[in-house]
Write the structure tokens for this entry.
Amino acid sequence: MRRDSLTAFLEHIHPRSVPEISTRVSFTFCLGGLATAMFLVEILTGALLMLYYFPSIPNAYPSIQRVMYFAPYGFVFRNIHYWAGQAMVILVLVHMVRVFLTQSYLPPRQLNWVIGVILLGLVFIEDFTGYLLVWDERAHWAWTIARNLTEKIPYVGDGFASVLFGPLHVSDLCLIRVYAWHVLFLPATLAFLMSIHYWKVRKDGGISTPL
Ligand code: HEM
């Protein structure tokens, strides 16, 4: 891209003017932006972990041990991936509380609130699927409980449980299913919905101002 077209693009995605109050850190605490930063950290560190992770029942746990004890800086990247994931969950929750307390969900921002609720649900599922990938005793039983609970949803439970968690009996297919959700479908959906979320912030007249 030529330099002047890049500048034009950057100017295009920035608002012409912004109310002074919305620029105060104490209004938003940059919580949405910080959640986005954590998402980017997750993508980068997750891509590195993928170089070692092996999604099969006998190999998943040993491959994580390899990351921790043999891969260069593996324990650093795994810990960053773990803690940035937990931070993202907390930041998104506190961002939601901020939006609620400043009543920023009121029209015209009600659709962005709904998109936010979906984002929150997906962030929880993303965190949970990551916890399952370790495939230690805890993950095995967490998978069993989550699958059984999902099956109990009236009418759609069985199909839903298979799509989300894989076949009823534990096999490599189950782990591959959870892995595909964790590294592909959920991050892609999150990135897509986050883009709409930012676009809606602009469309709705920028960040809200105090009532
Ligand atoms: C992956 C999760 C999320 C990300 C990355 C994200 C990101 C952002 C960002 C960057 C902003 C601009 C202002 C700010 O930083 O506070 C924003 C605004 C907003 N977000 Fe989120 N958000 C997420 C989840 C949520 C959730 C869970 C809700 C509520 C259920 C929500 C509702 C809103 C609303 C209504 C606005 C407009 C606020 C205003 O105009 O003051 N978002 N979001």
Observations:
- Residues 87 and 176 are 26 Å apart (CA to CA).
- The chain has one domain: 29-203.
